[in-house]
Amino acid sequence: MKSISLLGATGSIGIQTLDVIEAHPEHFVLTALSFGKNVDKGIEIIRKFKPALVAVSSKEDAVKLRTLFGNEVSFVYGQEGLIEVALHPSVDVVVNAVMGSVGLHPTLQAIAAGKQIALANKETLVTAGHLVMEAARAHNVAVLPVDSEHSAIFQCLNGERSEDVERLILTASGGSFREYTRPQLEGVTVEQALNHPNWSMGAKITIDSATMMNKGLEVIEAHWLFQMPYEKIDVVLHKESIIHSMVEYVDGSTIAHLGNPDMRVPIQYALTYPDRLHIPRAKKLNLWEYGQLHFAKMDYDRFTCLKLAYEAGKRGGTMTTVLNAANEAAVQLFLEGKISFLAIEAFIEKALETHDLIERPSLEEITKVDEETRRYVQSLL
Ligand code: NDP
Ligand code: MG
């Protein structure tokens, strides 16, 4: 029986993680959870799963929930609350499914407390990958990927020697605008951008998929998780999202991971590794229903954000902190209707250009650069 703490329970990954937990009551128990502002959904989840501890964003919501649930459940709030949920003493595994670099501090503290991490929150590795992976090594803690591409690569690597790996190949669906030319991208709306062809996800990652920044964040995530130089990480367009990623070995063998697009699979694998469990209502992968799978070379001029991510990753240090914070801030402005779709990449590029690199930043420096970058992006309005 694994005791789980779930950060971001009301989100897209959070809800699917609850599905996995509910399907296997003999394997998992939900001990603690957090959500942000979606109190209605949160109440529904608390009634169903009866966790011991819950963190919410605001003090007002915590007070309201205490009145509603009495002393059946403990409620905490804010950044400290999130950390408390990650550190609950009886928890074995922390599933980090919050959106954004707000997930960094709880992850670092959970690692220091020896908790295993199931990581969906890619912004954590992008903003401070060296700190997270150093802490994981120091405390002998496993950071298991939830992101489908990284779960795929993790399974394709299957313990092989890293010197035998020629390339990691991440697949990209192309997002909402995969058939659009650059001039066609100029007038696109928030509604169009939120309409992803293959996956139903939170708003921010859906926009990241449309700009291809999602793949950029994933390249950086792969660099840290698998300790691969950027020269050995490649991206291929694959519109069906059936191959979730591949590993090419020095002898020319390429091992791919296939499956229908269903995030419950990588979520559950991060919780059951090295074992596997049945997934209820999972659709069988019948390749004949597809007939063909398609692949295309990535165009880095068409998808500028991916190019920016590689450049920031190769420069290292705080460049990826800036990349992530500028992207979070710019995507938020786009979702609020304040900037155009193409301004997202323009703002990120400006933030990267004006930043003075810190090569091995401390946690304090990362937090400071993150805040400064968000302010800088706001000032570009
Ligand atoms: P959602 O936006 O659907 O959910 C985010 C969750 O985090 C919600 O529970 C939200 O609470 C909570 N949250 C957001 N901001 C804060 C904050 N400042 N403080 C505390 N809690 C907060 O996102 P997704 O589930 O789509 O994505 C989560 C993470 O997983 C992201 O890093 C994403 O890149 C990654 N990921 C997602 C995939 C997907 O299929 N969705 C696939 C692979 C990776 P509330 O809504 O209550 O305010
Ligand atoms: Mg992914």
TrEMBL record:
Pathway assigned to this chain's UniProt record: Isoprenoid biosynthesis; isopentenyl diphosphate biosynthesis via DXP pathway; isopentenyl diphosphate from 1-deoxy-D-xylulose 5-phosphate: step 1/6
**InterPro entries, per the entry:** DXP_reductoisomerase, DXP_reductoisomerase_C, DXP_reductoisomerase_N, DXPR_C, DXPR_C_sf, NAD(P)-bd_dom_sf
User: Could you tell me the EC number(s) of this protein?
Assistant: 1.1.1.267
Identify the residues that bind NADPH: T10, G11, S12, I13, G36, K37, N38, N121, E123, G202
Query: Domain 1-deoxy-D-xylulose 5-phosphate reductoisomerase C-terminal spans what residues?
Result: 143-226
**Which metal ions or organic cofactors does this protein require, according to UniProt?**
Mg(2+); Mn(2+)
Keyword entries, A-Z: Isomerase, Isoprene biosynthesis, Magnesium, Manganese, Metal-binding, NADP, Oxidoreductase
According to the UniProt entry, its GO molecular function terms are:
1-deoxy-D-xylulose-5-phosphate reductoisomerase activity; isomerase activity; manganese ion binding; NADPH binding
Occurrences of domain DXP reductoisomerase C-terminal (ranges):
258-376
Q: Which PANTHER family match?
A: 1-DEOXY-D-XYLULOSE 5-PHOSPHATE REDUCTOISOMERASE, 1-DEOXY-D-XYLULOSE 5-PHOSPHATE REDUCTOISOMERASE, CHLOROPLASTIC
What is this protein's name?
1-deoxy-D-xylulose 5-phosphate reductoisomerase
Which organism is this entry from? Fictibacillus macauensis ZFHKF-1
